[in-house]
Amino acid sequence: MIKRLEDGRFKLKELLFAESSLTGPSCDPRKGAAYGLLPQPCRVMVLLNPQSGSGRALPLFRSQVQPMLTEANIAFDLFVTEKPNHAWDLVREEDMSRWDALVAMAGDGLLYEMINGLMERPDWRSVTQKPLCILPGGSGNALAASLNHYASKGNFVKEDLLINCTYFLCKGRYSPMDIVSLRTASGKRLFSCLSFGWGFVSDVDIVSERYRKLGSARFTVGTFQLLTTLQVYKGRLSYLPAEEQGSASDSSFPTGTQNHPSAQHTHRGSFDNGKLPVHILPPSVPPFPNEGCNLEDSLLVPFEQPVPKHWTVVPEEEFVSIVCIYQSHLGADLFLAPSAKLYDDAIHIFYLSAGVSRMAMVKLFMAMDRGTHLTLSNPHLHYVPVKAFRLEPLEPKGFMTVDGEVLACEPVQGQIHRRLTHIISGSSEGLGPPKKEH
Questions:
Q1: Tell me, what DSSP letter sits at residue 223?
Q2: N or C: which end of the chain has fewer CB within 10 A?
Q3: How far apart are CA 22 and CA 429, in angstroms?
């Protein structure tokens, strides 16, 4: 943990760039290596949402972040967002050659806006190579907590987590990061760096917005509020298991600690039981419009077609919650996917089937604080790493969320794209799958 000295400084000169000898092309992730280093000195674009979390992002930037950037000789241009999707519009239109990295000081939603703005640019392939950075200023701060975990810095929250992530930026080390491309039946295409969800967990995220002044405590309040009226969500979940692509051997997924749907589950088309998912895209509308990014989702087929025969269709059609996550944490104190890495080329699906009791739910969420929920062997909790998925609600109920932002309830499918962008990580260890031994 980085400590502030009595004179207000952080004594960064003695800490920064301890591995500065690791420079040059060999440490450039764009050339296939595991990490890169920002130039010294450098200039960054900082986008800050003053309404994030409890509303203290701007004063925290001034009191905690700015002194560290000054001490590390990092110049910055600060943009304070004024409305929803402001960051989306800014990064889509600005001249990105002015900055060496793009920084989000907010919750996870602001970085989601920035990524989608970048992906709408005609030069998306080049600008997505510019490192991103997350400085936690919101309520959930899931990506920041994940990066802190990958760097083996312990379990920090609030200002301690912010100082750690600011130190990562001052250190300048960045790593590749996987991105998930999401398609909706209404024709939207979105890009996500954290998670997609439907059901209980997503409902808590959205309903608890009214308690945002409480900070991260809002999720606890929202959880107990929704537990009193536990809902069931009817839908169909299909996925392409990670091992189907042959690269699961590169990853260290746990086995034997989760209820993993077997490969013997029935593979079937989307509509063979007579139930139609809601809001199916009419055939006259192009299912996959391109809005600047021509990145191909080679594992997905249009919604009017059934999923490929080698996919698995989950037999359950009644769920309490479904979370597709690509990082280790779903919140600063919600360690949902202990085996997830920054670029492990996998979507980690957790779903709770109907029938789970409220007490079992409480035990699961308490265990998630330590990442031990899979060891409880709850028969309603299922986990599987996948390359792609499709979720088709059978009724328009509850909220869907992507990186904490709300979506309309409709069929959604997505696939992982490995190392699509880069992020300030603070470490080159524990970020991706282990190397193959020859």
A1: H
A2: C
A3: 14
| Angstrom distances, CA of residue 82 to CA of 40, 85, 213, 273 | 31, 9, 18, 48
Strands (E), 365-411: 381-393, 400-402, 405-407
Residues 2, 3, 4, 7, CA torsion sign:
negative
The confidence score (pLDDT) of residue 30 equals 59
Contact residues for 438 (Cβ-Cβ < 8 A; gap 6+): none
In contact, 389 and 237? CB cutoff 8 Å? yes
Structure tokens at 272: 């063979």
Write down all domains in the chain, each with its CATH number in brackets. Answer: 12-177 (3.40.50.10330), 182-420 (2.60.200.40)
pTM: 0.84
- 113-129 pLDDT, tens per residue? 999 999 999 999 999 99
| Residue pLDDT, tens place only, 330-357 | 988 899 999 999 999 999 999 999 999 9
Which residues make Cβ contacts (< 8 Å) with residue 179, sequence separation at least 6? 115, 191, 192, 193, 416, 417, 420, 421
C-alpha closest to that of 431 among 177, 162, 172, 163: 177
Residue 228: exposed, middle, or buried by beta-carbon count in 10 A (0-12, 13-18, 19+)? exposed
Alpha helices in 317-407 (DSSP H): 358-368
- Residue that is written with structure tokens 């910055």 in the block: 76
Q: Tell me how crowded residue 13 is: count the other CB atoms within 10 A of its CB.
A: 11
Active-site residue list: 108
Statement: residue 183 has pLDDT above 80: yes
End-to-end CA distance of the chain: give it in Å, rounded: 38
Structural contact between residues 222 and 204, judged by C-beta atoms closer than 8 angstroms: yes
Short-list 416, 390, 413, CA closest to 242: 416
pLDDT of amino acid 4: 59
Query: Taking phi first (over 0 means left), then psi (-120 to 50 degrees means alpha), and beta for anything else, what does residue 292 get?
Result: left
Q: Which two tokens stand for residue 59?
A: 């004063």
